[in-house]
Amino acid sequence: MPKGPTKRRPQTTARLLHAAQETFAERGFYGSSIEVICERAGLTRGAFYSNYRTKEDLFFALFDLHAQRVIDRLTQAVDELDLADDPLRAVLTRMGTVDEAERRWYLLSTEFTLHAIRHPDTARALAEHDRRLREEIVHLLAQLLDRLGRRPTVDLNLLARLTTAVHEGSLTQSLVEPDQLAPEQLAVTFLPTFLDTVSEPVATEG
């Protein structure tokens, strides 16, 4: 492969991802065409197809970027546990933080999930990306419980699925009724008690 295109590839993909993020936010997944994304990025269709096969591939690249931001945010919250008066509440509040970028991502990912449900091959691809993100969440849950002096009594993979479901369901309700429910309210109110029932204190020697 020529050296020039190889060196430019990161810049090209960054421009495509930025353009896709803005276009998806404005038009949704179905309403965004490859042509419009390329035009917004100032690139040709050839540049697109040299990096991605389909619009779905572009979405999954954005998925992975968003997933990394989520993991980075939660990792920081777990790392700062010792600095918080109420460490579990601090983590759950960080998990429920919703800015405009998070709101746009939620709208896009919800639309894409419906698309995936209708298309089995896409659903399998989405499930694989979800699985990789869930592995990171499982690791963070294990760290969190360990820092709290507890150990799980349930499958952490299932616990990760449940906490994700609570987060996404709460966010749905909050976006529909923002004056009635804060994004983190359900998690902060109920998950601490729930975590006590799915974990136990680690016995200390002495």
From TrEMBL:
Which residue numbers delimit the DNA-binding region?
Answer: 33-52
Q: Which domain of life is it from?
A: Bacteria
Which Pfam families does this UniProt record tie to the protein?
TetR_C_6, TetR_N
Under the heading SUPFAM superfamilies, the entry gives:
Homeodomain-like, Tetracyclin repressor-like, C-terminal domain
Gene3D superfamilies associated with the record: Tetracycline Repressor, domain 2
Keyword Hydrolase among record annotations: no
The residues covered by the HTH tetR-type domain are: 10-70
Q: Cite the InterPro entries for this sequence.
A: BetI_C, Homeodomain-like_sf, HTH-type_TetR-like_transc_reg, HTH_TetR, Tet_transcr_reg_TetR-rel_C_sf
**Keyword flag Nucleotide-binding:** no
What are the UniProt keywords, alphabetically?
DNA-binding, Repressor, Transcription, Transcription regulation
Name used for this protein in its record: TetR/AcrR family transcriptional regulator
